[in-house]
Amino acid sequence: MARLKGSCRCGRITYSLEGEPTRIGICHCTDCRQESGSAFTFFGVWPASSFSTSGETDVHNGRRFCPTCGSRMFACTDDEAEIKLGTLTDAPTALVPTYELWVKRREKWLSPVEGADQYVEDRRSG
Ligand SMILES: [Zn+2]
Ligand SMILES: [Zn+2]
């Protein structure tokens, strides 16, 4: 079974993931763009029981980040952990998006991920 590790830029926040993700996606929405400071977010969702972390994160709107270096890390509910996959230690990863959200806001120089479901907006409205 796969085990993945990640950390923030300064190393104060670390985490690990056991087993297979529930889903892997890319999101081009305004929230993700502004919050990440980049053109899209590459994220994965695991059952909360598969996720463990150490170090003190700060939180804004449920999104956790390192208060020292500012790395955006993850968001957790009782059921799920959503991880920003750029924080994984090893790259490239073996994780491939199965869906893309808010493709109407995708940069024109980016191509759709082959085989990934394409949603104009959120999964519900797409
Ligand atoms: Zn940090
Ligand atoms: Zn988004």
Automatic annotation (TrEMBL):
Lyase found in the keyword field: yes
Protein name per UniProt: CENP-V/GFA domain-containing protein
Top-level lineage group: Bacteria
Family annotation (PROSITE patterns): CENP_V_GFA
Lineage, opening ranks: Bacteria, Pseudomonadati, Pseudomonadota, Alphaproteobacteria, Hyphomicrobiales
InterPro entries xrefs: CENP-V/GFA, Mss4-like_sf
Ranges of residues in domain CENP-V/GFA: 4-100
Annotated Pfam families: GFA (PF04828)
GO terms of molecular function: carbon-sulfur lyase activity; metal ion binding
Keyword field: Lyase, Metal-binding, Zinc
Family: Belongs to the Gfa family.
